[in-house]
Amino acid sequence: MSHFFLVLLIILSSKSLYFEMFGTNIFTIFTFIIVFFVFFKEKKTIRIDVLIFGYLFLLVSIISLDFDIKTFILMLIKTITVIMLISIIKFEVFSLHYSKIIKFIAFVSILTYPIIFFKLSSPLFNFISIDERIHENFILFGVLDNHIAHGVYRINGLWWEPGAFHFFLTISFLFDFLYERLNKRSTIFYIIMSLLIGSTTGLLSIILILLSKNVSRLNLIKLIYLVIILFFIFLLFKYTNISNKFDLDSSMSLLSRYYDFLISYNMFLENPLVGYGLGNQIEKAIPFGIDLLGYNSYFSLAKPTGSDGITMFISQVGLLGFIFAFFLLFPNYGSVKISTLGRCFIALALLITFNTQNFTFLIIFNVLVLYSFSSWRGLVYHDKS
C-alpha cells in the first residue's frame, strides 16, 4: 500500500490540479519527505552509478551562468526524491500502480459528460489552475467552467486541460503495452478515452505505440487494415466535434506549437553547449520570441505557450539535454519483444507526447529518465512489493 501511495504522489506532483491549487513547492517537499521516510524505513540502498547519473540533473541546472537558483533547489529535491524512489519500487510495480491510478481517474472522469450536459456544479471549493482557469471540483476530477458554460464535451481528469490529461493516459498505455498487460477490452477502453478527451496528438501517439510491435513485418493485408482504420479515424474527425481541431481557428494550436519549436531551435543554435539556463523561459525565451517572430505574431491567437517540452529542455541545458532525451525516448524496460524500428515508433510517440505538453520540468520526467537509465544498466530493482 505504501508503494501505491508513493506512485499516487508522483502523479499528483506532476502538475495535477491539487499540485497547482495547494502550491507547487509544498507538494514537491511533501513528496520528498514521504519518499525519504519510506526509503529509510525499508532500509534501501542507492547504486553509485544511479546516483552519479541522477546528479547530472543538477549539473544541467547550474551549467549555465544564468541558472535560476529556485530551479536548482527544486531540481535538487526532485532528483534526491527520484533516486530514492527507484531504489524502493521496481519499475514493473511502479508502472502497474501508475496504470491502475490513471485508468481509474479516466473511468470516473467519464462523468464529465453528464455534468456538462446538465450544467451541474460542485458544492466543493473550485480548483483554480496556475493559468487561473476555474474548474468545478469533483475530488477525483475537475471540469472546466467554460466547458460547462459552452457545452464543450472534453475530459481533462485531474489536470488543467484535456491534452495534459492525455499525456498521462498515453504513458499509462505505453506501460501496459510494454509489459503485455493489454487485451482487447483495455485497448478499446484506452481508444474510447482518447476520443472522449479529444486530443489528436494523444490518439496519434497511441496508434504509433500499437503499430510498434508489428511494424517490421507489416504485410499487404495488415497494411490494408491500417488504411481502413486510419480512414475510419479520418471520418470520425471529419464528422464529429473533433473536426473542430482542424478548422481555421483551431489550427492556431498547431501554429503555436510550431512557434514554440522555432524559438527553442534558434535559442539552441545561439548557445548549443550549455543552453540559455534551466528555468529561464520567462526571462529569456519570451523576449527572444518577440524579437524572432515580431510583436504581432507573438501575441496573436497563435501565441507561443512553451509546450515543446523536449526541445525547450535541450535549448535550456545545451548538448547534455540529448542524453536525457535518449533515455526518455528509448526506454529498455518491459517484457514485450519489439524490433529496432518498433522502438523508433515508440520514441516518436514519446517525442510527440512530450513536445506537445511541457512536463520536462516536472518530477514525472525525472522518474521516466532515471528508470530508463536503470533499465539500460540492468539495475531495475527486484524488491518484493
**Helix coverage percent:** 55-70%
The overall average pLDDT, rounded, is 87
Radius of gyration: 21 Å
Tally of contiguous helical segments: 20
Question: How many β-strand runs?
Answer: 3
Strand ordering within the main sheet = 1-2-3
| Structural class determined from secondary elements | mainly alpha
* Order of SSEs: HHHHHHHHEEEHHHHHHHHHHHH
Q: Sheet bearing the most strands, described?
A: 3 strands, antiparallel
Given as residue ranges, the uncertain stretches (5+ residues, pLDDT < 50) are: 245-249, 379-385
Cα distance spanning the termini: 9 Å
- Percent in strands: under 5%
Characterize the overall form: globular
Protein name: Polysaccharide polymerase
Organism: Vibrio parahaemolyticus
Keywords: Membrane, Transmembrane, Transmembrane helix
Transmembrane segments: 26-41, 48-65, 71-89, 101-120, 163-179, 188-212, 218-237, 310-333, 345-373
What labels would you give this structure?
single chain; 385 residues; mainly alpha; three-stranded antiparallel sheet; 20 helices; 3 strands; 65% helix; globular; disordered C terminus; transmembrane helix; membrane; Polysaccharide polymerase; transmembrane
Compact overview of the structure:
Keywords: Membrane, Transmembrane, Transmembrane helix. This protein has 385 residues and is mostly helical. The chain has 20 helices and three strands.
Descriptive notes:
It is a single chain. The radius of gyration is 21 Å and the shape is globular. It is built from 20 helices and 3 strands. With 385 residues, it is mostly helical. The chain starts with a helix and ends in an 8-residue tail after the last helix. Helices cover 65% and strands 2% of the residues. It has helices at 2-12, 17-22, 24-41, 48-54, 56-62, 69-88, 91-109, 112-117, 145-150, 162-178, 184-197, 200-212, 220-238, 251-270, 281-293, 295-298, 309-317, 321-329, 340-356, 363-377, and strands at residues 127-128, 134-137, 142-144. The longest helix is centred in the N-terminal third of the chain and has 20 residues, at 69-88. A 3-stranded antiparallel beta sheet has the order 1-2-3. Mean pLDDT is 87; it is low at 245-249 and 379-385. It has a domain at 2-213 and 330-377.
